[in-house]
Amino acid sequence: MAAQISMPPAAVKTIRDLIYWQYAKLIAKSAGRIKNYGFIMDRFKKLQSGEISWSGSIREYIKEQEIVGKCIYCGSTENLTVDHLIPRTRGGPESGDNAVIACKSCNSSRGDKGIYEWFELERRNEIPRIAEGKYLKELYSLHEKKRTLDSNCRDAFLQ
């Protein structure tokens, strides 16, 4: 059976909206409500209005400490490296907010692909929460610097 592509709703018009939509889905996933469209839309609107915001870097750091010494993607404890969530070749910064620990195998397999590109549609629900949250924040920051957050997203995709 072929996988169905889930397009964002019509309310998602800009790159900023698309990043907020993905983050709202991440919030829903963390709350055990991934299939609850109303909950996701509510979080999306609250992110848009500024009523809620992303979790902070400190919270992400604390979550990462729960998996110290393991690859964030596969759990391996061998040949660990630093993986840049937004690859340096794609403008990603050299910072802790743009980095996670990954084994050489996962890091090499991913190469310079973005998280969504690497996990592909079939595995999109397997993206580790910490990696996806940090990735979305860095993606937002990158688009903010490029002044493209308010660009139309219908032709764009998260890389």
Quickly describe the structure.
This protein is mainly alpha-helical and 159 residues long. It is 43% helix and 6% strand. The radius of gyration is 15 Å and the shape is globular.
Computed over alpha carbons, the radius of gyration is: 15 Å
Chain-averaged pLDDT: 83
Helix content: 40-55%
End-to-end gap: 26 Å
User: How many β-strand runs?
Assistant: 2
Number of helices: 6
The ordered H/E elements are HHHEEHHH
Coarse shape? globular
Note the main sheet. Answer: 2 strands, antiparallel
How many domains comprise the coordinates?
A: 1
For the biggest β-sheet, the strand order reads 1-2
Question: Low-confidence segments, ≥5 residues, pLDDT <50?
Answer: 1-5
Beta-strand share of residues: 5-15%
Derived structural class:
mainly alpha
